[in-house]
Amino acid sequence: MNAPIVQLSNICLGSTGKPILENISLSLDAGHFLGIVGPNGAGKSTLLNIIAGLTAPDSGHVDLFGQCLHRYNRRSLLKQVGFLNQLQEREPRLPMRVRDVVAMGMPDFASPIRWRKLSQQPVMEALALTDMQHLADADFRHLSGGQRQRARIARALVSKPRLLLLDEPSAALDSARQESLFQLLRQQCDDNGMSVIMVEHDIAAISSHVDSVACLNRRIHHHAMRGEQIPEIIWKAMYGEHIRIMSHDSGCIGCGPGGSHA
Amino acid sequence: MPDFLQQFLASPVMRESLQPAFLIALVTASMSVMIMAHRLSFLTVGVSHASLAGMGLALTLSLPLLPAASGFAVLIALLLALMPRSQGISEDAGTGILFAGSMALGIILVSSAPNARVDLFGLLFGNILTITPEDVSWLWLLGGIILAVLMVAARSWWSIAFDSVTAAASGLPVTALRLLLYGIVGLTVILCVKLAGIVLTAGLMILPAACAWFWGRSLFGLWLMSVLFSLTGTLAGLLWSYAYDWPSGASVVLALCGLFIVSWSIYGRVEWLKHHVLKQ
Question: What is the ipTM of this complex?
Answer without folding.
Answer: 0.84
